[in-house]
Design brief:
The structure holds 3 protein chains of 3 kinds. Chain A is α+β, with helices and mostly antiparallel strands. Chain A has 8 helices and 20 strands. Chain A has 2 domains: about 240 residues, P-loop containing nucleotide triphosphate hydrolases (Rossmann fold), CATH 3.40.50; about 120 residues, Beta Barrel (OB fold (Dihydrolipoamide Acetyltransferase, E2P)), CATH 2.40.50.140. The longest helix of chain A is centred in the middle third of the chain and has 18 residues. Classes of the chains: A alpha+beta, B mainly alpha, C mainly alpha.
């Protein structure tokens, strides 16, 4: 069985027409004065899903999260949670909890008081609270820090307190606003996996807001890419990366090369494209493009092969010159200036320690790729 | 730090750099010494003199007291003087219930006024801190502005409002809320109003600065965890504004204990406060030693709150860094 | 911050500001009252202003107050700035605790104590009470306020500016005058204004430390108030308020102008 990307996903309720939606944004609009933060947006999230809202700052992703938490009211449209319309329910009565970007730990309370805060609000008996707090501390490995105050903790520890506090009440949905934004790179990577494990262990639905594509790709079951208050594409990380539906998404996630041109000739499942300078490439997956239509072939750098001699069997091979080359350790990145002037980015995995026939600046070089290595975009 | 720099100058220092270094040490010392000496001489030494005179006897002369502990007689004279020290003024203060009552009343009035000022000032400071960011500087300015106008004048304005035929009574009478003019002027109520009014900015400003600093996401977090707004206020907002509350209360309480103008103008002759008592001992009775003794005891009473204030200031300064 | 400005917040602010400003407004309104009764409106008149300017005693007191204010505020600004630098920059020297105590204590010290103690000092060293002693007293009190205002600015001062200046070859003293001083200037100016108004305002300390021939305006107003309320005092107060208000408004407009100009410059710079 073949699939996009390298992971087999068994959990995919979004492909099941009978699956019951858990969170539904139904034609939601939110305006702040003249500014439309969220524009007529509809979105469905399923139970136990790890869902990421990905976008640049100001795209409306945080507003969406805050509407779910109850801090903002939609100007129009409905938000349903487990079939219940959330309209008019104040934040303190909603069965969702949020982990704040700033963590919002109460500075005058100890770690355990912070974690116990939400439990006290629902009037849980003291002995049960104690048990749950201990359990949470164990979960985030902060047992010995129970009596500390937030300012006596490191950034990573604070992050875990915030996490423990927000899951202590066993909410139906956990909202995470840039949960790892304040951590340094290494800690962030570790914590990404911890968060995934935690979600599996607790069986909760997570909705995470982030501007970091790697974070979203690592953790989420599905990603919604947002731009200017609208969802541009909702799909699994692999689909987002390998099969973006628009130039915006292709550009937003990862690096991409765009070959622009017109449809010149159509065969059974391949299409010949002629570029502006006359260079021709053959691609697949351009079923709905008419002859003569303007289209774009988007291809990721690692799908492009760079070589000093023309590969014998290549369908698509274009010649150029090495414009820039960078050795990054795990891979090498080439910028090849094609003879028609376009610069192509290609990357090669450094699978072995020694490279035969290495390239350097200004060398003549060939770039080649398969017809199915990229996608054809019309938007 | 300047001393270290000057004495431990590395030997490799060039001859040209040395004068600059020395000049810096000299300037450093000057920066510290000038205000230091000024405050020593005009703030600390006077207290020693007050203390000294509080131990002397009243005399009908100018100055109206007999000197004690004068070093002009040499050390032996000083020791002789030590034996003749006179605690009569303090004995006098303890014997006359008037003084004791004045101290206690002043503390109570200052205490009640402080609480009232807090109650009036907190909603204002809270409202200001929650105002749109563009409006906040204007509101801040409006709070500070009355402070730039004369304190005396603002207290004086209340006479016109509070007196029996004053504006407040006229208004209440014309609204038929009362049939007889209320007697407010020359009562403790008038003093409360006067203190709350005059000291309100001192309460609002520290409150505002601690409330404004507060991260609003803390309130959202509390609500998110199931705490309704009122609860969130008492569990989060108020405890976090405590430094502001304490600073504001001390800024009101300490000067209010020794307040003179407000009880004198609004409280009339019936009310008793220690600042007024001191003033009268000094200006009306011309009893300098007794008024010095009154001042010494007032200072002792206020030592603890002043030290608290000092610590709060030092902490605020540390946090500012 | 995403806070809602609720009706409760607006109400409390409106009521609070009404409480703060109503007495002042009434005072100003009744300074234009024809009637001598301060609380009954008898028609518009400026006669109290006219009689005010013929009141030689008040005019003399105003002149004394203005001179005391300018001199004491200026000296206090120098001393207070030095004190502020000492407090923020020299964290370790002998007697620092005592020093910070002497700076902060006068802020809350009841005026009767400060006034009495200064008077006794002046008597002890044999200084004749008068213009000079009031000025000294006011300098001592107001320098502490200046110190606090300047200190709060110095605390947030970016030390790397000074380091940059020294790195480029400016010796410390020059660095102070060319870099530090210009940056903290707004705080120094507002410190001076605060010192000036405090001096202008003070009754208690002036009463203790002043002598014949150096009656300040608050002392004059106080003695007249004790004799009974007259609209002439209202007029005097209104003028004082107007002077202060105009000063503050000019200062804030200048500030605003600078701010607007700066924003415009920044925008222009961004457009390139």
């Amino acid at each position: 069985m073949k699939s996009l990307g390298s992971i087999r996903r068994d959990f995919a309720p979004w492909n099941d027409p009978n699956a019951k939606p858990y969170i539904q944004f139904d034609k939601v609009t939110k305006k702040f004065g003249d500014f439309t933060a969220v524009n007529n947006l509809s979105l469905t999230i399923f139970e136990r899903e790890f869902f990421a809202l990905l976008g640049a700052s100001g795209c409306g992703k945080s507003t969406l999260l805050r509407m779910l938490a109850g801090f903002e009211q939609p100007t129009a449209g409905r938000i349903l949670l487990d079939g219940q319309d959330l309209r008019g329910i104040p934040p303190y009565r909603r069965p969702v909890n949020m982990m704040f970007q700033s963590y919002a730990l109460f500075p005058h309370m100890t770690v355990e008081k912070n974690i116990a805060f939400g439990l006290k609000q629902e009037g849980m008996p003291a002995s049960d609270i104690e048990k749950r707090v201990a359990e949470m501390l164990r979960l985030v490995k902060l047992e010995q820090f129970a009596k500390r105050k937030p300012h006596q903790l490191s950034g990573g520890q604070r992050q875990r307190v915030a996490l423990a506090r927000s899951v202590a009440k066993r909410p139906k949905v956990l909202l995470l606003d840039e949960p790892l934004g304040a951590l340094d790179k290494k800690l962030r990577e570790e914590t990404q996996f911890e968060l995934m494990d935690l979600q599996q262990e607790l069986g909760l639905t997570f909705v995470v807001v982030t501007h970091d594509q790697e974070e979203a790709m690592t953790m989420a079951d599905r990603i919604a890419i947002m731009d200017k208050g609208e969802v541009v594409q909702v799909a699994t990380p692999a689909e987002i990366y390998e099969a973006p539906t628009s130039r915006f998404v292709a550009h937003f996630v990862g690096n991409v090369n765009m070959f622009e041109g017109k449809v010149a000739e159509r065969a059974a499942n391949t299409t010949r494209i002629t570029g502006a300078t006359g260079a021709q490439i053959v691609v697949e997956n351009a079923a709905d493009a008419a002859n003569g239509a303007d289209i774009v072939f988007a291809i990721r750098p690692e799908k492009i092969k760079v070589s000093s001699k023309k590969p014998a069997d290549a369908v698509n091979a274009l010649q150029g010159e090495v414009y820039d080359v960078a050795y990054l350790g795990d891979m090498t990145v080439y910028h090849i200036k094609l003879d028609d002037g376009q610069i192509v980015r290609a990357s090669a995995l450094n699978a072995s320690r020694v490279t035969e026939d290495p390239l350097t600046w200004n060398d003549r070089a060939w770039v080649s790729f398969r017809p199915d290595a990229g996608v054809v975009l019309t938007r | 730090m300047s001393n270290i720099a000057a004495t431990a100058a590395p030997s490799s220092e060039t001859a040209a750099a040395l004068p600059t270094r020395l000049a810096k040490g000299f300037v450093d010392r000057l920066v510290i010494i000038v205000p230091y000496l000024w405050l020593l001489f005009f703030f600390l030494v006077p207290f020693v003199i007050v203390f000294k005179i509080s131990l002397s006897q009243t005399a009908i002369s100018m100055p109206p007291y007999t000197p004690v502990l004068d070093f002009t007689d040499g050390v032996s004279g000083f020791l002789a003087g030590l034996r003749e020290l006179n605690f009569d003024n303090y004995t006098w203060l303890t014997q006359d219930a008037l003084y004791f009552n004045a101290y206690v009343t002043s503390l109570i009035i200052a205490g009640i006024s402080t609480i009232l000022t807090l109650i009036v000032g907190y909603p204002i400071a809270y409202g200001m801190a929650r105002a749109p960011a563009t409006v906040r500087p204007i509101l801040l300015m409006l709070v500070i502005l009355p402070f730039w106008t004369s304190f005396l004048i603002r207290v004086y304005a209340w006479i016109g409002i509070l007196k029996p035929e004053g504006l407040l009574n006229q208004m209440l009478l014309s609204l038929h809320l009362i049939s007889q003019p209320l007697v407010i002027l020359n009562t403790y109520t008038a003093i409360f109003i006067g203190i709350v009014y005059s000291y309100l900015p001192f309460m609002v400003l520290p409150l505002y600065s601690s409330l404004e600093k507060m991260d609003y996401s803390l309130i959202e977090a509390a609500q998110d965890l199931g705490c309704p707004p009122t609860g969130a206020f008492w569990k989060i907002t108020f405890p976090l504004s405590l430094p502001g509350v304490i600073a504001g209360c001390l800024l009101v309480f300490i000067p209010a204990v020794g307040e003179f103008v407000i009880p004198d103008l609004l409280g009339g002759s019936q009310t008793l406060m220690i600042g007024k008592t001191l003033w009268n001992e000094f200006f009306a009775n011309r009893d300098w030693p007794v008024s010095s003794a009154v001042a010494v005891i007032l200072l002792l009473v206020l030592t603890v709150p002043i030290m608290f204030f000092q610590q709060a200031q030092a902490r605020a300064q540390e946090q500012g860094k | 911050m995403n806070a809602t400005w609720s009706r409760f917040n607006i109400t409390s602010i409106v009521l609070g500001f009404a409480f703060l400003y109503l007495p002042i407004v009434l005072l100003i309104v009744f300074s234009f009252n024809e009637s001598k009764l301060v609380t009954v409106w008898g028609g518009f008149s400026t006669k109290w202003y006219v009689s005010l300017f013929h009141n030689q005693g008040l005019m003399d007191a105003t002149w004394v107050t203005a001179r005391v204010g300018v001199i004491s505020a200026t000296v206090a600004t120098v001393l207070g700035t030095l004190a502020a630098i000492t407090l923020t920059r020299y964290t370790r020297f002998k007697g620092r605790v005592l020093f910070s105590g002497m700076v902060f204590a006068p802020l809350v010290m009841p005026e009767v104590i400060t006034g009495l103690s200064l008077l006794l000092l002046f008597v002890a060293v044999g200084l004749d009470r008068g213009f000079f002693t009031v000025t000294l007293a006011h300098t001592t009190l107001t320098m502490c306020f200046v110190a606090v205002v300047v200190q709060s600015r110095l605390v947030s001062f970016d030390r790397s500016l000074e380091e940059a200046a020294m790195d480029l070859g400016a010796p410390p003293v020059k660095t102070f005058f060319q870099i530090t001083l210009p940056v903290i200037m707004p705080a120094i100016v507002s410190g001076w204004m605060l010192a000036f108004t405090l001096s202008l305002d003070d009754l208690v300390i002036a009463s203790f430390t002043s002598g014949p021939g150096a009656t300040t305006l608050p002392m004059k107003i106080y003695s007249q108030v004790r004799l009974g309320v007259t609209p002439e005092i209202n007029a005097a107060c209104t003028i004082l308020i107007a002077v202060v208000a105009i000063g503050v408004i000019i200062a804030s407009i200048a500030n605003k102008r600078r701010e607007v100009q700066r924003q415009r410059d920044e925008q222009a710079a961004q457009r390139g």
